[in-house]
Amino acid sequence: MPLSNEDNLRINVLLRQNLYALRIDESKMRIDALTERGEGQVVLNPNCRDEKYIGMVKEMISTYVLGSPIGYPVYIHRWIRMGQSRKEESLQNLLKLGEPEAVVAVANSEDLPVEVARHAWWAQPTEENARILLRHKSVIDDDLGQELATFLMEFLPFESDALRIVETVSLLLQAGVLSEEDRIGLWKKASHKSAYYPGFLITAANDLPLDIPEHENYPQLSQQLANIIDQGNKAAEYYLWCHSDRGRAFLHTIGLSLKRPAQQAVVVTLLNAIGHHFTEMGLTRRFRTIEELSAYNCRIYDDNCENEHHHLSSEIKQLIAAVPGCRERTLAMLGLAQMSETLLDPLFGGTDCLGSVMRKRIKPVSEPLLEMIGTLEQ
Fold it and tell me: Residue 131: how many CB atoms within 10 A of its CB?
């Protein structure tokens, strides 16, 4: 059964305009369009079941845009969320299909032109799309970035999924997205929702809105370690950083994150964020227990480790020579560098516990982690 004559004519006229994007509202049986002349609309007049009619409408649009009535399932699914590099014309065509997943594919594309990003935002103004688009520097540098940031800031208090909260906060904290006032406001809200803190540690580890002074020994350490840091000693560089005002703010934020985490995803993301910050030391972060982790770090410190970390052991020997008596602090730093979700696998396996039950369950990891922080803060 063909489309009604009226709809067939109006859709054909619409598709032949300079069209940027389409939205198909199945509940209202309506097509919204963004064209060079502004927004337009086609109210559908179905002559069969709505679901079947919408399918025919999509087939007609796909045939015109892609040359195939089944263009969407064949052409789109391979590219969704894969971050493929696509030509601007191809991206624009995807937005004309009226398919939400096609919009997601466009938003995830590499080197997304800001004008196409604007059209993708019009086509699907959702929190998911806002997060995806805010990963693009072209968007951040444009007024669209501010629009998306405002949208996400307003939506954030209503988000319940911990991972989405972490991702949203980390995206909002990218350079050039929020004003300093908004950054501080976001930090204050973290005291009521611990899922905010990992977002800060992921994106703003060196620029946390905390006024914590450097360690009293920092000036002396800076002099002791200057030479080997200039030679490229990453262990010494991180050791000094842990005693700086930025490093101590990082340590303090970890403590805040562990006060009352409510969901497993928050703890998982937190440990990954901690370990990731020390990536340049080259540790593999593969241990499933703190005991195994600590034993291996002792071997690194004592230069009795596997070949893959022999270079790190050599750096630590230089660190020990420059700063005698630093064993406990160095081991604490190595412990932070080994943090990852792998440590939580034996604790979270087969359970979805939350709240106080979860906090009790993670004590084999959280308590030693807090001890490491305490050692470095002394």
Answer: 19
